[in-house]
Write a structure and sequence with these properties.
CATH class: Alpha Beta
Order of helices and strands: HEHEEHE
Helix content: 10-25%
Strand content: 15-25%
Length: about 90
């Protein structure tokens, strides 16, 4: 488990195309993070194939909904079950 954001490896490189194109419009379900339950292990960050999970200065998990496609991998790998996939409105 990472002790801080600085302990995380470099993020995967995004191609210019994926950085420019907002692919979140493909999503039919979205992840919602329960920050109170999150222990900041950053497992979701490591496994996100869209590099759509960010970490703020306090270590909280933030979802970049412009790039999240709603695959649900973050929910599946979360050891605390604090990410829930909910239907888009």
């Amino acid at each position: 488990m990472a002790k801080s954001v600085e302990d995380l490896p470099y993020i995967p490189l995004m191609s210019e195309s994926s950085a420019v194109n907002k692919t979140g419009v493909w999503r039919v379900i979205r992840p919602i993070v329960n920050q109170e339950e999150c222990n900041q292990c950053y497992t979701c960050w490591k496994f996100c194939p869209d590099v759509a999970i960010q970490i703020d200065e306090e270590g909280n998990i933030l979802i970049d909904y412009d790039h999240c496609k709603g695959c649900g991998i973050c929910e599946a790998v979360c050891p605390k079950n604090c990410i829930e996939m909910v239907k888009e409105e």
